[in-house]
Amino acid sequence: MSASGVQGNVAQASSADDNAKVQRELDKLYSDWSNLPEGHKLRQFQDALKDILDKTDYNEMYGVELVAPVDGKPAPHTTLVILQKFLRANVDDLEKAKEQLTAALKWRKEYQPLKVRDETFDADKFGKLGYVTRVKGATETKNEEDVVTFNIYGAAAKDVKKTFGDTDAFVRWRVAQMELTLKELNLNAADKNIPDYGKGPDPYKAIAVHDYLSVSFFRQPAEIKSASTKIIDMFQRYYPETVSYKYFVNVPLVMQWMMGVMKTLLSKDSIQTMTWMTYGSELHKYLGKSVPKEYGGDGAPLAESAITPNYGNAEAKPANAAPASVAEPVPAVSNATAKEKKAEEPKIAEPPATTTESAPAAAAEQAVPVTGTTPEVTGKPEEKATVA
């Protein structure tokens, strides 16, 4: 049955049960990406892709080579996965999705984040600050296994200037970590559909953990403010639909006033994806027992089991190579220079407060209440849309 036929039945349905049944038929029809109706936003997006790629002269996004449809055949599944992410990030507003994709392609052409991912960074500055790993048993996703990024802000507590003093270097390191996370998501091998906006969760997102052990929330050096502003803006613009849930651990109860502030700055949907807990040992309740012991699990320490960006002057576990069966895309790049460079209460674990030492304030991309830079996050609760 055609989409118009199904929609006609929806209009004629005389009961809630009939409506629900017909709507399921319509959803099933729209889930067939190989034969999308002409009126479907994803179909329209893929039909506009060639012009976008021609305009930007670049064809790589999140490590996936974007390929426009040819001779009436749909775009490759992995391309549609990327397009659907941009559609969902913009609440199915096709024009906004096209604009954001165009801007993101231009930025990637200029910034070359895949090359940044493979750069060698100073381990004395960043070596213990971030890790990428996998967990099984996460309670809030439907995935058998999830990619998780850990940001250990206490690692920068003793010397803020060393870590954040060179803002550009820190931002490049943070981009490298994000690109490594995307690589672990293995979008080049994605074979599942991402539901339309409002119809269910995206299975191709990572989880983020922000550990504030030994971090003081009462001091905000200028270096952190500068890095905050840049990263919030960059990730909002260029990394939509990459993170499903955020867990803030080792946050003292005295700082729970921040949640009230965040409710005024962020969307209801974004707040619903955030879980705050005073003890890091509570994390296993959300991410399963494969997390390290300090998070209540029985997994190996992050320094032994997780992967990181490349470091040149200290012990670190570098990024693993991509699976042999997955080829890295070769983006189209010209010599031209690009010109472009979102109220539910959040969940709170209830153990008693801990104390903090003098240290830098919240992590760069989490310093929204301090910097005043408010990312606009869109989506319904079931979308779990967040800033990356």
TrEMBL record:
Residues of the signal peptide: none
Catalyzed reactions: a 1,2-diacyl-sn-glycero-3-phospho-(1D-myo-inositol)(in) = a 1,2-diacyl-sn-glycero-3-phospho-(1D-myo-inositol)(out)
Origin: domain of life: Eukaryota
Key words, A-Z: Cytoplasm, Endoplasmic reticulum, Heme, Iron, Lipid transport, Membrane, Metal-binding, Microsome, Transport
Region spans: Disordered: 322-388
GO cellular component annotations of the record: cortical endoplasmic reticulum; cytosol; endoplasmic reticulum membrane; plasma membrane
Cellular compartment(s): Cytoplasm; Endoplasmic reticulum membrane; Microsome membrane
CDD domains associated with the record: SEC14
Lipid bilayer topology: Peripheral membrane protein
Any Pfam family hit: CRAL_TRIO
Cofactor(s) needed by this chain: heme b
Principal cellular location given in the protein's record: cytoplasm
GO biological process: Golgi to plasma membrane protein transport; regulation of exocytosis
Biased composition (Low complexity): 322-337, 350-378
Single GO term (MF): metal ion binding
Domain CRAL-TRIO: 168-303
Stored PANTHER family: PHOSPHATIDYLINOSITOL TRANSFER PROTEIN SFH5
Function, in words: Non-classical phosphatidylinositol (PtdIns) transfer protein (PITP), which exhibits PtdIns-binding/transfer activity in the absence of detectable PtdCho-binding/transfer activity. Regulates PtdIns(4,5)P2 homeostasis at the plasma membrane. Heme-binding protein that may play a role in organic oxidant-induced stress responses.
Annotated family: Belongs to the SFH5 family.
Protein name: Phosphatidylinositol transfer protein SFH5
